[in-house]
Amino acid sequence: MDFKDEFEAIAEKTKQLTGSGIRKADEMFSVSKLKLECIRIDNTIKTKYAELGKMMYNMVKDDNADSEKISDAVMEIDRLYKKMAQVNEKIEEVKKIVTCPECGTKNKFTSNYCSSCRHKLVCTDEEPEDYSYHLDVDTE
Ligand SMILES: [Zn+2]
Fold first, then answer.
1. Helices (H) then strands (E): counts for the chain
2. What is the largest CA-CA distance in the chain?
3. 34 and 94 in contact (C-beta within 8 Å)?
4. For residue 65, is it within any domain?
5. 14, 18, 73, 109: least surrounded by Cβ within 10 Å?
6. Total of domains in the chain
């Protein structure tokens, strides 16, 4: 199963569903989609562990150990762990970006003003009324 393709399909759908004026919501969507991808990878890892366990059980039972098959399965699990780490990194990256509500420019989380239009950027940690006013979207 290719998670990337599936994820991109969801991302494309999200893009179609959301209007151009709610960029911050887009951003939030992408974080939750990334989290969803993480959960999916985690579930696949669990399945792979179960498959590996069953495979080894059968090998021991039949006294027919195939070390190549085992290492293939182990590498597959390692690959999935790496993928999950990449997705987690992406989540952290997306969280660190603040999109200007005026012009849509992506700024560093630490920026107080938009690098493009100088609009004051509202930190998500402060003044929730101000925050929702600028976004004009339901933040829940
Ligand atoms: Zn701006």
1. 4, 2
2. 71
3. yes
4. yes
5. 109
6. 1
The predicted model scores a pTM of 0.57
* Cα 96 to averaged position of ligand 1 atoms, centre (Å): 16
Domain of residue 44: give its range: 3-135
**Cα 18 from Cα 29, distance rounded (Å):** 10
Q: Is residue 140 part of a domain?
A: no
How far is ligand 1, taken at its centre, from the CA of residue 98, in Å? 10
**109-133: pLDDT as tens digits:** 888 899 999 999 875 544 444 443 4
Q: How far is the CA of 110 from the centre of ligand 1 (A)?
A: 15
**CB burial readout 23-35, b (16+ within 10 A) else e:** bbbbebbbeebbe
What lies within 8 Å, CB to CB, of 65 at 6+ separation is 59
pLDDT in tens, 62-112: 998 899 999 999 999 999 999 999 999 999 988 888 889 899 998 988 888
How many angstroms separate the alpha carbon of residue 25 from the centre of ligand 1?
Answer: 16
